[in-house]
Design brief:
The structure is a homodimer. By secondary structure, chain A is mainly alpha-helical. The first copy, chain A, contains 16 helices and two strands. Chain A has one domain: Orthogonal Bundle (Farnesyl Diphosphate Synthase), CATH 1.10.600. In chain A, helix 3 crosses helix 8, helix 4 packs parallel to helix 7 and helix 12 packs across helix 15. The radius of gyration of chain A is 20 Å and the shape is globular. Chains A and B meet through helix 4, helix 6 and helix 7 of A and helix 4, helix 6 and helix 7 of B.
Chain lengths: 325, 325
Amino acid sequence: MKAFEDIQNIITTELETINWNKDPRGLYEPIGYVLSMGGKRIRPALTLLACNLFSDNVQPAVNSALGIEIFHNFTLLHDDIMDRADVRRGRPTVHKKWDDNTAILSGDVMQIASYQFIAQTPSEYLKQVLDLFSKTAAEICEGQQYDVDFENRDDVKAEEYLEMIRLKTAVLLGCALKTGAWIGGAGEEDAQLLYDFGINIGLAFQLKDDLLDVYGDEATFGKKIGGDILCNKKTYLLIHALELAKGEDGAELENWLNAFDDNLSNQKILAVTSLFNRLGVKSICEDKMQFFYTKAIANLEKVSVLENKKQELRKLAEKLMFRND
Amino acid sequence: MKAFEDIQNIITTELETINWNKDPRGLYEPIGYVLSMGGKRIRPALTLLACNLFSDNVQPAVNSALGIEIFHNFTLLHDDIMDRADVRRGRPTVHKKWDDNTAILSGDVMQIASYQFIAQTPSEYLKQVLDLFSKTAAEICEGQQYDVDFENRDDVKAEEYLEMIRLKTAVLLGCALKTGAWIGGAGEEDAQLLYDFGINIGLAFQLKDDLLDVYGDEATFGKKIGGDILCNKKTYLLIHALELAKGEDGAELENWLNAFDDNLSNQKILAVTSLFNRLGVKSICEDKMQFFYTKAIANLEKVSVLENKKQELRKLAEKLMFRND
């Protein structure tokens, strides 16, 4: 069994061997820039770890894993344009460092590049991996669309939110795992259990993200705490707060949602956070996160390989849940 | 042999059966809108005509043909954002009818949809079709990038321009033809001859476009004559004019290139057109167009099927060259 760190090293090394230093520079340079920003490489790691459950040789899954990672970074690139996000991982985003048109076109070719890596999946698995990858890619776009739609709605239900984050975040984890499992030679039942493991981990992961954005430690989290509160993002916390806040609490929450004065930023963050605490939505969110985490672990337990082979995936799931960044 | 019109009917019918009327509406509705705008469906027609050279049954090539047409329309969608084009085929473009973010995200999922159709290529040809498609898709982005780069350069050479339009326009025609040929069962030599036929027709087609933009008839051309002149687009005509205009002609051309006053639009178009005529760049462009057209016909002649089977492709090539719109 390979350790998570060894798997990460394989991915980092392989990613670095891709040459983006080619003409036209204006098209390919931003891709190298985005991929050099780092990130935890969780998705390709999941592919290789899932493959490793069934096969000692993870090499046949490397190109598919890279395709998934490149696709993930492509979605960040285009999402950053749509969200007008200026900074990612402490560095200017592509549309900020270059411009919108560059970010659009480099993103487009990055999506194509992700398919070029997926196309290098061993031929016996190509069709099924390709179909799952495309289905997943479309779902991610659907999730992003729902996310945008929710901005203009005041009646988003918790269930709708969970479906949105399933599409936007969880399905790519499921796809990464199932792809690796297939290439490792897993049977359909195990491959599906790993897909479900990915979905549940992904849902828990996003709820953790919502929590960190409010309750995280700014130094380790890497972005400003309270960002979601400031832009009224309909997270699992806010959706429940909107549902639960009655009387004075309801009026106060409503008030803060209409406050966009930069000078009141810190006050808004403090006030909404204390409303969240008072309404108990922090623990609602934590409970739901725990619920999905437990389901994920149950999925993993059912996978028909020796328990000790699963420890790296279990450790990774734990790390994602109990992280501070 | 199927006639071009029959082939077009197959494509139109198949395109209409695709359901874009699904959730989230904001994501899929613009795709239905773009594909309902019409267009000549030349690329998928080329795929089916090429297939038909080698096989009476074109059905196995239909999904690949649709993938190519959807990809083509995706590039128009994203190009229109980058070019800030408000109108296409007489109707508002997606970023105008909706907004930029919608156009970006619908385009992204449209690119994925094109891969979903390509993935339905008969399995024995899937890998080679997929690889050619991705290579071509990346080349089209490269062509678009060079096109953008050229806007900020005053020293673009005719050869660079031809390479740009090869990437931006011609390779997709070549890809469409080669894909159809493969699926029809063509040998590698014939498939490559059809690819080259597509490249040469594509180059001639784009030069024809440059000519129509200046010398076309507004009523049949469908867009305003002189658009390229007004935005100083570095077409094959302007690149040669810049090279040939000396003394007074050079000063006059330079002057007009610096004139952006809307009130002088008609004057600018007339003056630059008459400079083009005086400098003989119209016939330089026509000669080059003829050169590629002749090469294309020579490629087609070498394809090892009976001459009478080729008449639809020859007729289509003629139509593209001697069109007025």
